[in-house]
């Protein structure tokens, strides 16, 4: 007998959870979204088994409901769920990047019999939407759970067991502790990346060499400034208390190092960078996951207009999904290399075979 799981919001995170769970043939996944076109895409690419824009239809038989929508939409969805007919002992969980407010809201609003467990997978991307979803997005990443005081242990165990398919490391944490820590390691860095980019954009208005000279360092530290503005607006407003404190601490730290620069304190400036390097180098490595080039295919391309479009059209016509595409080198009259990332090994092999058939020189590394 199959178990129904409802995913509310079939985007990057909802889609990635669906892809991980659907490896288990006993699980039937129903997707709910406001956008019919997103649902069509998720259905056509096999991310979900069924799709609906009607919430009651999505959740009626679900044993587990994932809320995977932007943070500010989680509250009204909790309200709507509290009015609907749900399966007995249903587990409702969310994937929002903040936990305290959501957990407190669920505690107040959800009726007895609904087991709410806050959740936050600590992996993601600056990209949004189901087309960026991957069954391995959470592999080896931490996945934080913040159950309500009254949620039975059995519910936490059931959700943990379901989530093993994501290959994430599940940890249970207090919601406020989560918000404080994630504020420092995720939310505040997103603010800083955007501050840096906006600063350079202002300078660039006066002199376009800023943009042209922005090289590896600037790109590395600002990748996350390409994330969804709507998502980050919601996160900041829902973790205001911790972020204001982190920002004040950061201003002091910046003042301290700039005072050392002003007095040309060579030793202390070096010590400042040494401390940062030692801590950074000691961060635990994630062995595998979204950022690993696991399903990358390299294609030699003649550098003339239309070639990349032709390749993506060929793949699209065969319903082969691409999660990333990058031109590694193009100079006039020189062959360029296109790197295409696929969602899984099977799609990579299909893509490789297809492009070879059309006489492209294709290869994988490693
Ligand atoms: N992107 C990340 O790196 C990341 C990582 C961990 C957690 N999160 C959290 O996951 C959640 C989703 O983020 P995402 O990156 O998957 O966003 P996304 O934009 O890729 O997907 C969100 C989906 O929700 C749908 N949606 C919006 N409002 C809705 C509503 N009221 N009802 C039903 N569907 C609705 C959208 O149409 C979209 O398909 C957010 O709460 C975010 O904080 C994001
Ligand atoms: O890799 C990225 O692009 C991310 O920003 C992922 C990231 C993070 O800050 O690490 C962003 C938000 C989440 O809630 C969890 C993970």
Automatic annotation (TrEMBL):
The Prephenate/arogenate dehydrogenase domain is annotated at 3-291
Hey, which pathway is this one from?
Answer: Amino-acid biosynthesis; L-tyrosine biosynthesis; (4-hydroxyphenyl)pyruvate from prephenate (NAD(+) route): step 1/1
**Top EC class for this record:** oxidoreductase
A single GO BP annotation from the record? tyrosine biosynthetic process
Q: What is its EC number?
A: 1.3.1.12
Cited SUPFAM superfamilies: 6-phosphogluconate dehydrogenase C-terminal domain-like, ACT-like, NAD(P)-binding Rossmann-fold domains
Output the superkingdom of the source species.
Answer: Bacteria
Keywords (alphabetical) are: Amino-acid biosynthesis, Aromatic amino acid biosynthesis, NAD, Oxidoreductase, Tyrosine biosynthesis
Catalyses which reaction(s): prephenate + NAD(+) = 3-(4-hydroxyphenyl)pyruvate + CO2 + NADH
GO function terms (MF aspect): NAD+ binding; prephenate dehydrogenase (NAD+) activity; prephenate dehydrogenase (NADP+) activity
InterPro entries per UniProt: 6-PGluconate_DH-like_C_sf (IPR008927), ACT-like_dom_sf (IPR045865), ACT_dom (IPR002912), NAD(P)-bd_dom_sf (IPR036291), PDH_C (IPR046825), PDH_N (IPR046826), Preph/Arog_dehydrog (IPR050812), Prephen_DH (IPR003099)
Domain ACT residues, every copy:
296-366
Name the family.
Belongs to the prephenate/arogenate dehydrogenase family.
Protein name (record)? Prephenate dehydrogenase
Name its species: Brevibacillus fulvus
């Amino acid at each position: 007998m199959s178990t129904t799981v409802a995913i509310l919001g079939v985007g990057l995170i909802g889609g990635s959870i669906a892809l991980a769970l659907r490896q288990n043939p006993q699980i039937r996944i129903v997707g709910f979204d406001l956008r019919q076109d997103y649902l069509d895409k998720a259905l056509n690419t096999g991310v979900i088994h069924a799709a609906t824009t009607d919430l009651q239809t999505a959740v009626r038989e679900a044993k587990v409901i994932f809320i995977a929508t932007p943070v500010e939409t989680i509250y009204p969805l909790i309200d709507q769920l509290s009015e609907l007919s749900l399966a007995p002992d249903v587990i409702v969980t969310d994937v929002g990047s903040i936990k305290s407010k959501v957990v407190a809201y669920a505690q107040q609003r959800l009726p007895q019999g609904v087991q709410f467990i806050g959740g936050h997978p600590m992996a993601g991307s600056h990209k949004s939407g189901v087309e960026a979803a991957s069954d391995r997005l959470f592999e080896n990443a931490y996945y934080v759970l913040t159950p309500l005081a009254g949620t039975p242990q059995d519910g936490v165990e059931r959700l943990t067991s379901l989530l093993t398919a994501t290959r994430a490391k599940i940890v249970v944490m207090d919601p406020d502790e989560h918000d404080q820590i994630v504020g420092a390691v995720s939310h505040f860095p997103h603010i800083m990346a955007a501050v840096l980019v906006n600063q350079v954009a202002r300078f660039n208005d006066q002199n376009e060499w800023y943009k042209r000279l922005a090289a590896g360092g600037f790109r590395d530290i600002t990748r996350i400034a390409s994330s969804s503005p709507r998502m980050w607006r919601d996160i900041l407003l829902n973790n205001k208390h911790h972020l204001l404190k982190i920002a004040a601490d950061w201003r002091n730290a910046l003042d301290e190092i700039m005072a050392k620069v002003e007095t040309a304190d060579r030793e202390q400036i070096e010590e400042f960078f040494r401390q940062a390097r030692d801590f950074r180098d000691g961060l635990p490595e994630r062995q595998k996951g979204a950022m690993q080039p696991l399903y990358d295919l390299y294609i030699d391309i003649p550098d003339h207009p239309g070639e990349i479009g032709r390749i993506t059209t060929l793949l699209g016509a065969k319903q082969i999904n691409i999660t990333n595409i990058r031109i590694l080198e193009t100079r006039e009259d020189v062959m360029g290399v296109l790197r295409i990332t696929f969602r899984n090994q099977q799609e990579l092999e299909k893509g490789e075979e297809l492009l070879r058939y059309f006489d492209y020189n294709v290869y994988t590394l490693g």
